[in-house]
Amino acid sequence: MMRDVTAIDGPDVPLRSRLTELLEGVVPWDEQERAHLTTAAEWIASGAPLYRLRKPDVPPMHLVSYFVAPDEARAELLLVAHRKAGLWLPGGGHVEPMEDPWDTVLRECREELHTEALPSAVSGNRPFFLTVTRTRRYEQHTDVSLWYVLRSTAGAVTSFDEGDQVAAAATGPRRARRHPRPPHAPVHRQTHGCPGPVAVLSPRRRLKVAVKSA
Asked: pTM for the complete prediction?
């Protein structure tokens, strides 16, 4: 059961109420996600800071929005090879102060993949999945991540932000798990057993997508 945030005082109360409503709409994938939903709801209701105020870990627990863009016809997911994380990740980023998490998706999709975020029929502009995860690299912190599903095709992205990403790829999860940069663990949980080809987009092959079998 979600916690009541009406007892909290402050300018972000409407957004806390909105986040609580979003969490109530997420159907747990498994017991781990059920536990994560409970943790996230208690954190939101506690009055603790929700947004990252200073890189990389202030406060040590903060909101993130990810967007997963599956191409159902090819059984592929669009992922990016993140420089700092050293992982294949979906697109996304930190939720800015007083920003709705869906607005984060809209902003980050434009910034990272140079395209508009199109909500899918799966969940529209609401999160489909939630994780609470401890980062693996330096200056560890905890991300409370809302995962959104977008409508996409393998050829929709023809360029990307080369500052934070090494490459972008439409990839079958099994192939990504064998890559030197493994996928973020929640990607593995969400897509386990879904094989498919990989179409890698690199800065040197910006407009030509190379398709390989999984």
From this structure: 0.75
